[in-house]
User: What shape does this take?
Amino acid sequence: MMVPIRCFSCGKVLASFYEDFAKKVSSGENAEKVLDEMDITRYCCRRILLTQVDLIDDIMKYKK
Assistant: This one.
């Protein structure tokens, strides 16, 4: 999984939050509440976690 280590705008470390966020959201919790519980309040950081798409499996199909 290729998760951004830091927020592109403010530089806050986000990689440590992604696994917990993904588990809670996939289990049916509201993403807004999960981010609030994790104390991720900046909209730039929230954007990165909400829009993260795992593409590594699709990319690995292609060889050089």
About this structure: Residues 15-26 form the longest helix (12 residues).
